[in-house]
Amino acid sequence: MRPLVLAIGVALMLPSVALAKSRVALVPFEGDNGGAVEDLVADVLDGDYTVAGPSQVRRTIDKLGLESELSERDLKKLANELEAEAIVRGDVTTKNGHKVLHVRLFVNGKRIHGFKVEFASTRSDKMKQALKDKLLEKLAGDDKPRKKKPAEEEADTSAKTDKADKPDKGEKAEGDEGDETKPGKGKGDETADTGDKPAGGGDEEDADRPKKKKRVAVADDDDEEVSARVEVGGGGAMGPHTANRAAIRVDFGPSASRRQLTFTSRVYDQAPKPYENSVVPGGRVAGDLYPAAFGNPDGLAAGLGIGGDFDQTIGLKLQSTAQTGTKFPVVQKHWSVGARLRIVVGKKPTSPSITFRGGYFHRMFEVDRSALMAGNIIDLPDVFYRGFNPGADLRFPIGGMIALVLGGEAYLVTDAGEIQKANQYGQARVTGGQGYAGLDIVIAKRFAVRVVGEFAQIGYSFTGNGEMTNNRDGVPTTKDIGGAADRYMGGALTFGVMY
pTM for the complete prediction? Predict the structure, then answer.
């Protein structure tokens, strides 16, 4: 009975063993800001292999105490720890406006020849298929460029027939990255093209060929080339939406602020008291939209957009000696909306950018006086600023995932609200502005955390025609208040979603 039971157990286990997929580990790719290419590689392998993603691999590297430059011994340790049959690494660079992915592989305990992929868009179906075919070929243990079958040569109407049948001329291993070079002239022996170019490439065919095509090339390190042509629509190749070229971004999270209002006046008993509140919490939401960047984030029109922000304090209350024991709710908020012109200085995901902006702004501080008894007066004017706010923002990456952000804007105030009425402080020359600085931390392909500190000030120079500027002491012939400074200090910690 025991052998029979054992045989039945083995028979029951065989299907699950047969269905088990080999495991491939992806080491974080160098130069892949936002992880778009890593996600693409994981996506094309999914279904054929079980994939251990870059985050899991990074944790395992840290756990094993391995250096960033992984030796062959390190790779073996990593593969054993992850129970992975293969490890895939990559470097992403830019060449002639295209991205170049250099894939390096460690399969079944040894390095094998890598390959390169040149592409314009990670969303191209042909690029995905070319990358998938090459990865599966390499991971299956085919360490030499694959000869095309006759059927493939017929389907490939753009094959280079004068090179397809040439025999290999020998191989030479080079470097510890598995690079390979071949003697001989020009490119290697194998070329496949999945585009629409007819064989032979005569003038008549060239005339009929669609003009807007972008080349996606997959090549072994020995320069044997497998290439495809990808149809481009909508005005050009679509590059990745990295943090500095996002088509849309929305940030939201908590904020905090503190206000100070001080007056410049001569010293006398009726002089207005300064106002200051403690730091109070609030909430913020902000967003930017660049419509043309959805199609081509590298194009000229991709930098034209709109944006805005809204911030409001929560639970701010005022206590006054005019009516002790009563807490008067306060509405303190600010918002703005306007146009954007973003300029990215460079082609890399880590290139700095400057954004010029301008639009309409609003900032207010208003005390709810509904609970104030008749005859009592709160000697603090409400403000209701509105006007235009031209400014600029700078985003300067200081690492692969961290960028310094800073900026400022001028306040061209057209109205200040209650404080400028005749029964308050009257007419004034009003100037102001706001500045901020902080860090923008990209934590995943589509997410970021931003922390900023801010300072804003609106200054007044009163003309002296208001009741509170020249008649606080009961003598209207003298000017008592010369000016005022309204300051706001605070910051925000927001979570961003971008595409």
Answer: 0.57
Domain definitions of the chain by residue range: 21-231, 243-498
pLDDT for res 220: 54
pLDDT tens profile 449-485: 999 999 999 999 999 888 898 888 788 888 889 999 9
CATH of domain 21-231: 3.30.160.100
Check pLDDT > 70 for residue 164. no
Q: Please give, one letter per residue, the 3-state secondary structure of the chain.
A: CHHHHHHHHHHHHHHHHHHCCCEEEECCCECCCCCHHHHHHHHHHECCEEEECHHHHHHHHHHHCCCCCCCHHHHHHHHHHHCCCEEEEEEEEEECCEEEEEEEEEECCEEEEEEEEEECCCCCHHHHHHHHHHHHHHHCCCCCCCCCCHHHHHHCCCCCHHHHCCCCCCCEEECCCCEEECCCCCCCCCCCECCCCCCCCCHHHHHHCCCCEEEEEEEECCCCEEEEEEECCCCCCCCCCCHHHCCEEEEEEEEEEEEEEEEEECCCCCCCCCEECCCEEEEEEEEEECHHHHCCCCCHHHHEEEEEEEEEECCCEEECHHHCCCEEEEEEEEEEEEEEEEEECCCCCCCCEEEEEEEEEEEEEEECCCCCCCCCCCCCCCEEEEEECCEEEEEEECCCCEEEEEEEEEEEEEECHHHHCCCCCCCEEEEEEEEEEEEEEECCCCEEEEEEEEEEEEEEEECCCCHHHHCCCCCCCCCCEEEEEEEEEEEEEEEEEEC
Fold (CATH) for 243-498:
Lipocalin (2.40.128)
Which tokens hold the place of 248?
Answer: 């849309």
Contact predicate 439/404, CB 8 Å: yes
Q: Which of 30, 33, 52, 34 is nearest to 42 (CA)?
A: 52
Q: How far apart are CA 450 and CA 440, in angstroms?
A: 4
137 pLDDT higher than 80:
yes
Q: Which residues pair with 102 in a beta bridge?
A: 91, 116
Give 238 or 378, the one with higher predicted confidence: 378
Specify the pLDDT at position 142.
Answer: 61
Q: How far apart are CA 77 and CA 90, in angstroms?
A: 19
Averaged pLDDT of the chain: 80
Q: Report residue 252 CA to chain centroid gap.
A: 15
Nearest CA among 101, 35, 127, 93 for reference residue 346:
93
pLDDT tens per residue across span 291-332: 999 988 888 899 999 999 999 999 999 998 889 999 999 999
Cα 146 from Cα 158, distance rounded (Å) = 17
Mark residue 314 as left, alpha or beta (left: phi above 0; alpha: psi -120 to 50; beta: remaining): beta
Greatest extent of the chain over all pairs of C-alpha atoms, in Å: 117
